[in-house]
Records
---
Amino acid sequence: MTLSRRELLIALLLAAAGLAAWWYRGSQQLESAPSSRQQGRPDYVVEQVAAVMMSDTGQPARRLLSPQLRHYPGDDGSELDMPVLRLLEPDAPDWVIRAERAWFSADGDETLLEGRVYAERAAGAVEPPIRIHTSELLLLDDFGYAETDRFVELSRGDDWLSAVDGMQLWYETPTRSRYFGRVRQRMTVAGAEPQPDAAGARP
Protein backbone atom coordinates (compact mmCIF):
# COMPACT_ATOMS: atom_id res chain seq x y z
CA MET A 1 0.00 0.00 0.00
CA THR A 2 1.35 3.40 -0.99
CA LEU A 3 0.91 6.22 1.55
CA SER A 4 -0.06 9.65 0.34
CA ARG A 5 2.17 12.58 1.18
CA ARG A 6 -0.28 13.75 3.85
CA GLU A 7 -0.52 10.26 5.45
CA LEU A 8 3.27 9.92 5.45
CA LEU A 9 3.63 13.30 7.20
CA ILE A 10 1.09 12.27 9.88
CA ALA A 11 2.93 8.97 10.45
CA LEU A 12 6.26 10.79 10.87
CA LEU A 13 4.70 13.26 13.33
CA LEU A 14 3.22 10.40 15.40
CA ALA A 15 6.57 8.60 15.46
CA ALA A 16 8.34 11.77 16.56
CA ALA A 17 5.75 12.31 19.32
CA GLY A 18 6.24 8.73 20.50
CA LEU A 19 10.03 9.13 20.63
CA ALA A 20 9.69 12.40 22.53
CA ALA A 21 7.35 10.79 25.09
CA TRP A 22 9.75 7.83 25.51
CA TRP A 23 12.73 10.18 26.03
CA TYR A 24 10.81 12.35 28.52
CA ARG A 25 9.68 9.34 30.55
CA GLY A 26 13.23 7.97 30.69
CA SER A 27 14.67 11.31 31.79
CA GLN A 28 12.02 11.66 34.52
CA GLN A 29 12.85 8.22 35.89
CA LEU A 30 16.53 9.06 36.01
CA GLU A 31 15.90 12.35 37.77
CA SER A 32 13.61 10.80 40.39
CA ALA A 33 15.76 7.73 41.06
CA PRO A 34 17.31 7.93 44.52
CA SER A 35 21.06 8.38 44.53
CA SER A 36 23.32 6.20 46.65
CA ARG A 37 24.25 7.63 50.03
CA GLN A 38 27.93 7.14 49.20
CA GLN A 39 29.23 8.30 45.83
CA GLY A 40 32.45 7.24 44.16
CA ARG A 41 35.22 5.23 45.74
CA PRO A 42 36.27 5.25 49.39
CA ASP A 43 39.45 7.14 50.19
CA TYR A 44 40.51 4.42 52.62
CA VAL A 45 39.45 0.96 53.77
CA VAL A 46 40.08 -0.63 57.18
CA GLU A 47 39.96 -4.40 57.68
CA GLN A 48 38.99 -6.16 60.93
CA VAL A 49 37.77 -3.10 62.81
CA ALA A 50 37.75 -3.21 66.62
CA ALA A 51 37.06 0.25 68.01
CA VAL A 52 36.10 1.83 71.34
CA MET A 53 34.25 5.17 71.38
CA MET A 54 34.49 7.28 74.51
CA SER A 55 31.89 9.41 76.27
CA ASP A 56 32.32 13.09 77.12
CA THR A 57 33.59 12.02 80.54
CA GLY A 58 36.27 9.80 79.04
CA GLN A 59 34.53 6.52 79.80
CA PRO A 60 34.00 3.76 77.18
CA ALA A 61 30.56 4.32 75.66
CA ARG A 62 30.46 2.01 72.63
CA ARG A 63 32.43 -0.88 71.23
CA LEU A 64 32.35 -1.73 67.54
CA LEU A 65 33.44 -4.79 65.58
CA SER A 66 33.30 -5.13 61.78
CA PRO A 67 35.22 -7.10 59.15
CA GLN A 68 35.51 -4.01 56.95
CA LEU A 69 35.05 -0.22 57.13
CA ARG A 70 35.01 2.07 54.09
CA HIS A 71 35.40 5.83 54.54
CA TYR A 72 34.02 8.22 51.91
CA PRO A 73 35.33 11.78 51.58
CA GLY A 74 32.08 13.22 50.17
CA ASP A 75 30.09 13.34 53.43
CA ASP A 76 32.96 12.13 55.66
CA GLY A 77 30.85 9.15 56.71
CA SER A 78 31.78 5.47 56.89
CA GLU A 79 30.12 2.24 55.79
CA LEU A 80 30.65 -1.02 57.66
CA ASP A 81 29.91 -4.65 56.84
CA MET A 82 28.30 -6.99 59.39
CA PRO A 83 28.77 -4.60 62.34
CA VAL A 84 28.38 -5.62 65.96
CA LEU A 85 27.76 -2.55 68.10
CA ARG A 86 27.77 -2.73 71.90
CA LEU A 87 26.22 0.21 73.79
CA LEU A 88 27.71 0.36 77.28
CA GLU A 89 25.66 1.46 80.29
CA PRO A 90 27.31 1.81 83.71
CA ASP A 91 24.36 0.54 85.77
CA ALA A 92 22.56 -1.75 83.32
CA PRO A 93 23.35 -4.60 80.94
CA ASP A 94 24.82 -3.60 77.57
CA TRP A 95 22.78 -3.35 74.39
CA VAL A 96 24.26 -5.53 71.62
CA ILE A 97 23.14 -4.67 68.08
CA ARG A 98 23.95 -6.70 64.95
CA ALA A 99 23.15 -5.79 61.35
CA GLU A 100 24.13 -6.65 57.78
CA ARG A 101 25.60 -3.18 57.22
CA ALA A 102 25.77 0.23 58.85
CA TRP A 103 26.59 3.85 58.14
CA PHE A 104 28.27 6.10 60.72
CA SER A 105 28.31 9.89 60.54
CA ALA A 106 31.67 11.67 60.74
CA ASP A 107 31.21 12.60 64.40
CA GLY A 108 29.88 9.14 65.29
CA ASP A 109 26.68 10.54 66.84
CA GLU A 110 24.40 9.13 64.13
CA THR A 111 24.30 5.47 63.11
CA LEU A 112 22.03 3.86 60.52
CA LEU A 113 21.85 0.06 60.69
CA GLU A 114 20.34 -1.78 57.72
CA GLY A 115 19.42 -5.28 56.56
CA ARG A 116 18.57 -7.82 59.23
CA VAL A 117 18.92 -5.79 62.41
CA TYR A 118 18.88 -7.51 65.81
CA ALA A 119 19.22 -5.66 69.12
CA GLU A 120 19.18 -7.31 72.50
CA ARG A 121 19.83 -6.51 76.12
CA ALA A 122 20.29 -9.15 78.79
CA ALA A 123 18.13 -9.19 81.91
CA GLY A 124 19.04 -6.73 84.64
CA ALA A 125 18.36 -6.69 88.36
CA VAL A 126 14.70 -5.78 87.83
CA GLU A 127 14.37 -5.66 84.03
CA PRO A 128 13.66 -8.73 81.87
CA PRO A 129 15.70 -9.34 78.71
CA ILE A 130 14.71 -7.32 75.64
CA ARG A 131 15.08 -8.37 71.99
CA ILE A 132 14.27 -6.28 68.90
CA HIS A 133 14.13 -7.36 65.25
CA THR A 134 13.65 -4.97 62.32
CA SER A 135 15.16 -4.11 58.92
CA GLU A 136 16.44 -0.59 59.62
CA LEU A 137 17.34 1.25 62.81
CA LEU A 138 18.58 4.80 63.30
CA LEU A 139 20.55 5.54 66.48
CA LEU A 140 21.14 9.03 67.86
CA ASP A 141 23.79 8.46 70.47
CA ASP A 142 23.63 11.87 72.15
CA PHE A 143 19.99 11.27 73.10
CA GLY A 144 20.08 7.55 73.86
CA TYR A 145 17.43 7.25 71.17
CA ALA A 146 16.59 4.80 68.36
CA GLU A 147 13.82 4.77 65.78
CA THR A 148 12.54 2.93 62.73
CA ASP A 149 9.56 3.31 60.42
CA ARG A 150 9.82 -0.34 59.33
CA PHE A 151 8.00 -3.36 60.71
CA VAL A 152 9.42 -4.19 64.13
CA GLU A 153 9.11 -7.08 66.57
CA LEU A 154 10.02 -6.75 70.22
CA SER A 155 10.02 -9.21 73.10
CA ARG A 156 10.44 -8.26 76.74
CA GLY A 157 10.72 -11.31 78.90
CA ASP A 158 7.69 -13.46 78.02
CA ASP A 159 5.79 -10.52 76.50
CA TRP A 160 5.78 -9.96 72.74
CA LEU A 161 4.83 -7.02 70.52
CA SER A 162 4.90 -6.11 66.81
CA ALA A 163 4.22 -2.78 65.09
CA VAL A 164 3.71 -2.34 61.34
CA ASP A 165 4.95 1.26 61.08
CA GLY A 166 7.88 1.18 63.47
CA MET A 167 8.76 2.56 66.87
CA GLN A 168 10.60 5.16 68.88
CA LEU A 169 12.83 3.82 71.66
CA TRP A 170 14.68 5.66 74.42
CA TYR A 171 17.05 2.85 75.27
CA GLU A 172 18.92 4.19 78.27
CA THR A 173 17.62 3.05 81.66
CA PRO A 174 14.76 3.49 82.36
CA THR A 175 13.67 2.53 78.84
CA ARG A 176 10.49 3.85 77.26
CA SER A 177 9.01 3.40 73.81
CA ARG A 178 6.22 4.28 71.37
CA TYR A 179 4.82 2.17 68.53
CA PHE A 180 3.03 3.12 65.32
CA GLY A 181 0.57 1.65 62.85
CA ARG A 182 -1.15 -1.62 63.58
CA VAL A 183 0.20 -2.95 66.89
CA ARG A 184 -0.23 -6.50 68.15
CA GLN A 185 0.76 -7.55 71.65
CA ARG A 186 0.78 -10.65 73.78
CA MET A 187 1.18 -10.20 77.51
CA THR A 188 1.83 -13.02 79.96
CA VAL A 189 0.57 -12.64 83.52
CA ALA A 190 2.01 -14.89 86.22
CA GLY A 191 -0.40 -17.71 86.93
CA ALA A 192 -2.65 -16.83 83.99
CA GLU A 193 -3.03 -17.85 80.38
CA PRO A 194 -1.37 -15.59 77.73
CA GLN A 195 -3.61 -12.66 76.80
CA PRO A 196 -4.90 -12.28 73.22
CA ASP A 197 -3.42 -9.69 70.87
CA ALA A 198 -4.19 -6.07 71.78
CA ALA A 199 -3.60 -2.87 69.88
CA GLY A 200 -1.77 0.19 71.08
CA ALA A 201 -0.15 -1.20 74.21
CA ARG A 202 3.45 -0.60 75.20
CA PRO A 203 5.84 -3.08 76.82
---
Amino acid sequence: MDNILNLRGLTRSTPNSNGQITTFLNHYSYLLARQTPDLFREFDTIHCDGIVLCLFLRLAGIRKIRMSFDMTSIAPQVFSSATNDNLSIYLIGGELGIAERACQILTQDYPNLRIAGIRHGFFSSPHARAQALEEIAQKKPGIVIASMGTPFQEQFLVDLKNTGWRGDGYTSGGFFHQTAKAGLKYYPAWINRFNLRWAFRIKDEPKLLKRYTIDFVRFLFLFLYDAFLYKIRK
Protein backbone atom coordinates (compact mmCIF):
# COMPACT_ATOMS: atom_id res chain seq x y z
CA MET A 1 0.00 0.00 0.00
CA ASP A 2 2.99 2.39 0.21
CA ASN A 3 2.68 3.51 -3.41
CA ILE A 4 -1.04 4.18 -3.07
CA LEU A 5 -0.73 6.04 0.21
CA ASN A 6 2.10 8.18 -1.13
CA LEU A 7 0.13 8.98 -4.30
CA ARG A 8 3.37 8.80 -6.20
CA GLY A 9 4.20 11.00 -9.16
CA LEU A 10 1.97 13.97 -8.35
CA THR A 11 3.84 16.39 -10.60
CA ARG A 12 2.17 16.22 -14.02
CA SER A 13 -1.18 17.79 -14.81
CA THR A 14 -0.86 18.58 -18.52
CA PRO A 15 0.02 16.44 -21.55
CA ASN A 16 3.58 16.06 -22.78
CA SER A 17 5.24 14.09 -25.53
CA ASN A 18 6.33 11.20 -23.29
CA GLY A 19 2.92 9.58 -23.06
CA GLN A 20 1.71 9.01 -19.51
CA ILE A 21 -1.48 7.80 -17.87
CA THR A 22 -3.04 9.69 -14.98
CA THR A 23 -5.78 8.81 -12.54
CA PHE A 24 -7.40 10.36 -9.49
CA LEU A 25 -8.23 8.99 -6.05
CA ASN A 26 -10.95 10.15 -3.69
CA HIS A 27 -12.00 8.50 -0.44
CA TYR A 28 -14.25 6.05 -2.31
CA SER A 29 -11.86 5.03 -5.07
CA TYR A 30 -9.14 4.70 -2.42
CA LEU A 31 -11.08 1.69 -1.12
CA LEU A 32 -11.08 0.16 -4.59
CA ALA A 33 -7.41 0.95 -5.10
CA ARG A 34 -6.59 -1.03 -1.96
CA GLN A 35 -8.10 -4.10 -3.63
CA THR A 36 -6.08 -3.70 -6.83
CA PRO A 37 -2.81 -1.98 -5.85
CA ASP A 38 -0.88 -3.51 -8.75
CA LEU A 39 -3.27 -1.88 -11.21
CA PHE A 40 -2.73 1.57 -9.72
CA ARG A 41 1.04 1.13 -9.67
CA GLU A 42 0.86 1.07 -13.47
CA PHE A 43 -0.06 4.76 -13.45
CA ASP A 44 2.53 7.45 -13.96
CA THR A 45 0.53 9.98 -11.96
CA ILE A 46 -2.08 9.62 -9.22
CA HIS A 47 -3.74 12.83 -8.10
CA CYS A 48 -5.60 13.40 -4.85
CA ASP A 49 -9.20 14.02 -5.89
CA GLY A 50 -11.45 15.20 -3.10
CA ILE A 51 -10.96 17.47 -0.12
CA VAL A 52 -11.61 14.60 2.33
CA LEU A 53 -8.70 12.48 1.09
CA CYS A 54 -6.44 15.55 0.98
CA LEU A 55 -7.29 16.30 4.60
CA PHE A 56 -6.56 12.78 5.79
CA LEU A 57 -3.30 12.67 3.86
CA ARG A 58 -2.23 15.84 5.63
CA LEU A 59 -2.99 14.19 8.96
CA ALA A 60 -0.63 11.41 7.85
CA GLY A 61 2.04 14.01 7.09
CA ILE A 62 1.58 13.99 3.30
CA ARG A 63 0.62 17.39 1.90
CA LYS A 64 -1.33 17.21 -1.35
CA ILE A 65 -3.74 19.59 -3.04
CA ARG A 66 -6.99 18.55 -4.69
CA MET A 67 -6.67 17.78 -8.40
CA SER A 68 -9.69 16.46 -10.31
CA PHE A 69 -10.62 15.91 -13.91
CA ASP A 70 -13.33 18.54 -14.05
CA MET A 71 -13.62 22.17 -15.09
CA THR A 72 -12.75 23.41 -11.57
CA SER A 73 -9.35 21.72 -11.78
CA ILE A 74 -7.13 20.32 -14.55
CA ALA A 75 -9.62 19.61 -17.35
CA PRO A 76 -9.31 23.14 -18.83
CA GLN A 77 -5.52 22.72 -18.89
CA VAL A 78 -5.83 19.45 -20.77
CA PHE A 79 -8.24 20.82 -23.38
CA SER A 80 -6.27 24.04 -23.84
CA SER A 81 -3.01 22.10 -24.23
CA ALA A 82 -4.65 19.77 -26.75
CA THR A 83 -5.82 22.75 -28.78
CA ASN A 84 -2.51 24.61 -28.61
CA ASP A 85 -0.44 21.53 -29.44
CA ASN A 86 -2.92 20.24 -32.05
CA LEU A 87 -3.38 16.92 -30.23
CA SER A 88 -6.37 14.76 -31.08
CA ILE A 89 -8.62 13.48 -28.28
CA TYR A 90 -10.57 10.23 -27.98
CA LEU A 91 -13.51 10.22 -25.55
CA ILE A 92 -14.71 6.89 -24.16
CA GLY A 93 -17.19 6.27 -21.38
CA GLY A 94 -20.69 6.80 -20.08
CA GLU A 95 -23.96 5.39 -21.33
CA LEU A 96 -24.93 5.46 -25.00
CA GLY A 97 -25.04 9.08 -26.21
CA ILE A 98 -23.44 10.62 -23.10
CA ALA A 99 -19.94 11.01 -24.55
CA GLU A 100 -21.41 12.45 -27.77
CA ARG A 101 -23.39 15.05 -25.85
CA ALA A 102 -20.37 15.94 -23.70
CA CYS A 103 -18.31 16.31 -26.86
CA GLN A 104 -20.86 18.71 -28.38
CA ILE A 105 -20.64 20.90 -25.29
CA LEU A 106 -16.85 20.74 -25.15
CA THR A 107 -16.38 21.76 -28.76
CA GLN A 108 -18.59 24.79 -28.23
CA ASP A 109 -16.00 26.17 -25.80
CA TYR A 110 -13.02 24.60 -27.58
CA PRO A 111 -13.97 24.81 -31.28
CA ASN A 112 -10.48 23.84 -32.46
CA LEU A 113 -10.44 20.63 -30.43
CA ARG A 114 -9.64 17.68 -32.70
CA ILE A 115 -11.82 14.69 -31.82
CA ALA A 116 -10.28 11.37 -32.89
CA GLY A 117 -13.30 9.34 -31.82
CA ILE A 118 -16.15 8.89 -29.37
CA ARG A 119 -17.50 5.72 -27.80
CA HIS A 120 -19.74 4.74 -24.91
CA GLY A 121 -18.16 2.83 -22.05
CA PHE A 122 -20.02 -0.49 -22.19
CA PHE A 123 -18.89 -3.62 -24.00
CA SER A 124 -21.04 -6.55 -25.06
CA SER A 125 -18.14 -9.00 -24.75
CA PRO A 126 -14.39 -9.18 -24.11
CA HIS A 127 -13.98 -9.27 -27.89
CA ALA A 128 -15.83 -5.96 -28.26
CA ARG A 129 -13.60 -4.43 -25.61
CA ALA A 130 -10.48 -5.72 -27.37
CA GLN A 131 -11.76 -4.23 -30.64
CA ALA A 132 -12.23 -0.84 -28.95
CA LEU A 133 -8.67 -0.96 -27.62
CA GLU A 134 -7.34 -1.86 -31.07
CA GLU A 135 -9.34 0.88 -32.76
CA ILE A 136 -8.04 3.56 -30.40
CA ALA A 137 -4.46 2.33 -30.67
CA GLN A 138 -4.67 2.45 -34.48
CA LYS A 139 -6.02 6.01 -34.44
CA LYS A 140 -3.12 7.08 -32.21
CA PRO A 141 -4.90 9.95 -30.42
CA GLY A 142 -2.67 12.28 -28.47
CA ILE A 143 -5.05 12.13 -25.50
CA VAL A 144 -7.60 9.58 -24.32
CA ILE A 145 -10.15 10.48 -21.66
CA ALA A 146 -11.85 7.47 -20.05
CA SER A 147 -15.02 8.04 -18.04
CA MET A 148 -16.06 4.59 -16.84
CA GLY A 149 -15.79 4.63 -13.06
CA THR A 150 -13.11 2.98 -10.95
CA PRO A 151 -11.52 0.47 -11.54
CA PHE A 152 -12.83 -0.05 -15.10
CA GLN A 153 -11.43 3.20 -16.46
CA GLU A 154 -8.03 2.50 -14.88
CA GLN A 155 -7.89 -1.01 -16.31
CA PHE A 156 -8.87 0.28 -19.75
CA LEU A 157 -6.07 2.87 -19.84
CA VAL A 158 -3.50 0.35 -18.62
CA ASP A 159 -4.60 -2.15 -21.28
CA LEU A 160 -4.51 0.60 -23.90
CA LYS A 161 -0.98 1.54 -22.93
CA ASN A 162 -0.02 -2.13 -23.19
CA THR A 163 -1.11 -2.15 -26.84
CA GLY A 164 1.81 0.19 -27.56
CA TRP A 165 -0.22 3.41 -27.61
CA ARG A 166 1.91 6.25 -26.24
CA GLY A 167 -0.45 9.17 -25.80
CA ASP A 168 -1.62 10.77 -22.57
CA GLY A 169 -4.52 9.08 -20.78
CA TYR A 170 -6.78 10.50 -18.09
CA THR A 171 -9.51 8.87 -16.08
CA SER A 172 -12.44 11.22 -15.50
CA GLY A 173 -15.09 9.45 -13.41
CA GLY A 174 -18.44 11.18 -13.92
CA PHE A 175 -17.12 14.07 -16.03
CA PHE A 176 -18.96 13.06 -19.21
CA HIS A 177 -22.22 12.55 -17.36
CA GLN A 178 -21.92 15.86 -15.50
CA THR A 179 -21.03 17.76 -18.67
CA ALA A 180 -23.85 16.19 -20.68
CA LYS A 181 -26.32 17.03 -17.93
CA ALA A 182 -25.30 20.53 -16.88
CA GLY A 183 -22.66 21.82 -19.29
CA LEU A 184 -19.11 22.75 -18.40
CA LYS A 185 -20.16 24.67 -15.28
CA TYR A 186 -21.48 21.72 -13.32
CA TYR A 187 -20.65 23.10 -9.89
CA PRO A 188 -22.03 26.50 -8.85
CA ALA A 189 -19.21 28.91 -8.00
CA TRP A 190 -20.09 29.11 -4.31
CA ILE A 191 -20.21 25.32 -4.02
CA ASN A 192 -16.70 25.11 -5.41
CA ARG A 193 -15.46 28.00 -3.26
CA PHE A 194 -16.52 26.32 -0.02
CA ASN A 195 -15.46 22.79 -1.08
CA LEU A 196 -19.04 21.52 -0.97
CA ARG A 197 -18.84 19.56 -4.20
CA TRP A 198 -19.58 16.34 -2.29
CA ALA A 199 -22.86 17.80 -0.94
CA PHE A 200 -23.84 19.05 -4.38
CA ARG A 201 -23.26 15.62 -5.89
CA ILE A 202 -25.42 13.94 -3.23
CA LYS A 203 -28.22 16.38 -4.06
CA ASP A 204 -27.76 15.85 -7.79
CA GLU A 205 -27.26 12.09 -7.55
CA PRO A 206 -28.95 10.69 -4.39
CA LYS A 207 -27.59 7.23 -5.19
CA LEU A 208 -24.19 8.53 -4.04
CA LEU A 209 -25.39 8.95 -0.45
CA LYS A 210 -23.96 5.54 0.54
CA ARG A 211 -20.58 6.61 -0.80
CA TYR A 212 -20.48 9.55 1.58
CA THR A 213 -21.83 7.70 4.63
CA ILE A 214 -21.23 3.95 4.89
CA ASP A 215 -18.28 3.93 2.49
CA PHE A 216 -16.79 6.93 4.25
CA VAL A 217 -16.79 5.05 7.55
CA ARG A 218 -15.03 2.14 5.83
CA PHE A 219 -12.50 4.55 4.38
CA LEU A 220 -11.89 6.12 7.78
CA PHE A 221 -10.93 2.86 9.44
CA LEU A 222 -8.89 1.49 6.55
CA PHE A 223 -7.04 4.73 5.94
CA LEU A 224 -6.10 5.02 9.61
CA TYR A 225 -4.79 1.46 9.44
CA ASP A 226 -2.76 2.24 6.30
CA ALA A 227 -1.48 5.48 7.81
CA PHE A 228 -0.35 3.62 10.94
CA LEU A 229 1.62 1.12 8.84
CA TYR A 230 3.02 3.97 6.74
CA LYS A 231 4.29 5.77 9.83
CA ILE A 232 5.92 2.59 11.16
CA ARG A 233 7.69 1.87 7.86
CA LYS A 234 8.75 5.48 7.54
